[in-house]
Write a structure and sequence with these properties.
- The chain is mostly helical.
- It has 3 domains: 2-68, no CATH class; 111-265; 287-407, SPRY domain (Jelly Rolls, Sandwich).
- The protein is built from 8 helices and 10 strands.
- Mean pLDDT is 82; it is low at 5-11, 280-285 and 402-407.
């Protein structure tokens, strides 16, 4: 049949270019194939396709879009078209292979394609969700990097402000502190940049996989679809973003607290220099305006059981306070409030801090900031939050009650 087609006169056809499927009948210069016959197992240009249809007029020949994969669509054993899928062996077979698979679960390739097409859509959906999540993770990580840079810069400026007004005997300590901050910044940025690169690579891989699946979903070649789907449906390796890149680093707040402690220890012989510091305007950052900005300075606190008044019940790992009429079986402790129903947190704060809390009740609640040196025993003003120079307090009351403030 091929020889008959070769002897016919060629009409105007398109020469085959790079990447095109070539006509199997053309002699000399090959032309671009437009269709492939799954019965003849040949590909034809437009001219030879018309002649093919003329020769086999009235006969059912299965034509498909031109493909260079005809040999992969043929059973190597029987040289017949692969048109059946064996679910038991997970492979494509021809009709003559059915005897070897007679007790197996077999369906047509088209039926198996329909089933796998549904799985492809689910796989695409999962990939697209991962892309969205990774893009979100990428943005959050970039914001974390910028926040870390700002914190490092703030720590540098605060340290410069303190140390430049101290005597030369602590110059070496100042330089060491600056080096520590820069090393931490470099370490944090280096870690984050590595993860940024991995996340960007993962997003590119996911996009490429999604594009390949999209292209595969439109192919008319069932065999190619089934043979390619298994490898394309496997999820690419995922980048772990759960661990905190900056958890092992010293916080800028801790650093500032150490510097202030050093300043206090040197106070006896450098009062004049510290006086100059106190008389000057302190450095402040841009005031946060939104909750997201405030959250950059957020802290988590736990309550100190040793300070809790015995009419306060602590629960949920010392994160919740409940006022009660039942005396709690707390042991006596020098830090415990015994006159006011108050409790301190275990953590101390320094510099700019932000925290949120929830409260409910009929009588309101006081939220306070206090020095550890506040008195604990008795009912005098020296022990009550907001009633002395050791503490400041904000009173929160329900909308239908009389409000007042404590300074």
């Amino acid at each position: 049949m091929v020889e008959k087609l070769k002897k016919t006169k060629l009409q105007s056809v398109v020469p085959a270019g790079a990447g095109d499927v070539q006509c199997d009948v053309c002699t000399g210069r090959k032309h671009k194939a437009v269709k492939s016959c799954l019965v003849c197992l040949n590909s034809y240009c437009q001219n030879h396709l018309e002649q093919h249809e003329s020769l086999f007029k009235g006969k059912r020949h299965n034509l498909t879009e031109a493909t260079g994969r005809l040999q992969e669509m043929i059973c190597q054993k029987h040289e017949k078209l692969l048109e059946v899928f064996c679910r038991t062996d997970q492979k494509c077979i021809c009709v003559l292979c059915m005897d070897e698979h007679k007790n197996h679960d077999t369906v047509s390739a088209a039926a198996q394609r329909t089933e796998k097409q549904k799985q492809l859509k689910e796989t695409q959906k999962t990939l697209q969700q991962r892309i969205q999540q990774r893009e979100k993770d990428l943005q959050q990580l970039r914001e974390a990097v910028e926040s870390q840079k700002r914190s490092a810069q703030t720590a540098v400026e605060d340290s410069e402000r303190i140390f430049t007004e101290l005597i030369r005997s602590i110059e070496r300590s100042r330089s060491e502190l600056i080096r520590l901050i820069r090393d931490q910044e470099k370490q944090a940025v280096s870690r984050a940049e590595g993860r940024l690169e991995r996340l960007e690579q993962e997003i590119n891989d996911l996009r490429r996989r999604d594009a390949e699946l999209e292209q595969l979903s439109h192919t008319q070649d069932h065999i190619q679809f089934l043979q390619s789907f298994q490898s394309l449906s496997a999820p690419p390796e995922s980048t772990d973003v759960n661990d905190d890149l900056f958890s092992s680093l010293v916080s800028s707040d801790d650093l500032r607290e150490s510097v202030h402690q050093l300043r206090d220890k040197l106070e006896d012989f450098c009062k004049e220099e510290l006086k100059k510091i106190s008389d000057r305007e302190t450095f402040t950052n841009i005031v946060p305006r939104t909750r997201n900005h405030f959250l950059q300075y957020s802290h988590q606190f736990t309550l100190d059981l040793n300070t809790a008044h015995k009419l306060l019940h602590l629960s949920e790992r010392n994160r919740v306070i409940t006022v009660t009429d039942t005396v709690q079986p707390y042991p006596d402790h020098p830090d415990r409030f015994d006159g006011y129903r108050q409790v301190l947190c275990r953590e101390s704060v320094c510099g700019r801090c932000y925290w949120e809390l929830e409260w409910r009740g009929d009588y309101g609640v006081e939220i306070s900031v206090s020095y550890k040196s506040i008195s604990r025993k008795g009912g005098g003003d020296e022990c009550g939050f907001g009633s002395n120079d050791q503490s400041w307090s904000l009173f929160c009351s329900p909308p239908d009650t009389h409000s007042y403030t404590i300074t």
